[in-house]
Fold:
Amino acid sequence: MTLASAVLLGTVLAFPLGAQWFRQPTPNDTLKSVRVLPDGNVLFQIYAPSASSVAVVGDLPWDKPVKFEKAENGVWKGLCEGLGDGCFRYSFMVDGVRVQDPKAPLSAEQASVLTKGEGYVKDVPHGALAQRWYWSSTLGELRRMHVWTPAGYEKSAEKLPVLYLIHGGGDNDASWPGVGAAGWILDNLLAEGKMVPMIVVMPNGTIQTSDMMGEVPLFGRDMVADIIPFVEANYRVIADQAHRAMAGLSMGGMETIETAFKHPELFSHVWVLSSSFSPGKQKEYVADIKLNEIAPALNRNFKALYFTQGGPADIAYKNCQEALGYLKDAGVKYQYLENAQAGHSWTTWRADLQVLAPTLFR
Structure:
């Protein structure tokens, strides 16, 4: 048994680089890998339907090894008893191969990134990338975001506009500044005089819910009630609609629609990258948000509304075309782009950022 055969159906599905809700659902979609039970014991779980053995290793009591049993749905479960309070490193062992927890909150940061060719790092002034934690009253928990500020921001007293940039499903707030190369791209654009100085906020759009689509409205509420207020209370920003933009890819595109279409008075620029209304339920979603009724408000408030695709190979392509039909029928003004024929990939979304960032706040 190889790692590919044992874990491919489990761990790979936990690294959905974008819109993995289009595929056949599995128990892995809503699995919580580590649960602290009311009695203080800890339940470890991993979806590895083809594996023949699973264990957990790390800073755990060696005198009480965790025994795993496999359920019929392919989920392995192991109970760790007598673990005291504290922080503990752990990994799964799947058929003898060490596997990082694919469902851990920071799992998207564990993937390796290959850079071939020049990449995006150039000898130009570089901005600062900060990790910021905030209390989400919406979710009742601490949440993390990444914030990029342009070179020279620390020494300036100038207030700047803000772009809220959201990743796709299965990723987190480290994805845009990591594999998305957002900081490098923005550094280069600013150094070349192609964009106006701005702050770019990259929140965590992934929320653990029993229904994958359930995170969309929750994130929308978190954006309005917690994320935007936190940024405007802690950074020198121009806190008005004209200087606020929102963009998201794949699942983040749905979260962008959810937030911006329900609160058009908050944003002047909106990008929906490789995404659409709720897949499979677009007609119902359009009716729910009363698209025909809110169309005048969208046209009045959005200085620019972009929908982009990575060409026909983009797995969101058909859904996006359907969404554009609803927009046309409702009279909503938008612009459509295919900046890269690279399908549903970061190559497409990096190209989107390079092309669209210079259009903001002009």
Helices lie at 3-7, 182-191, 215-234, 251-262, 282-288, 291-301, 317-330, 346-356. Residues 1-21 have pLDDT under 50 and may be disordered.
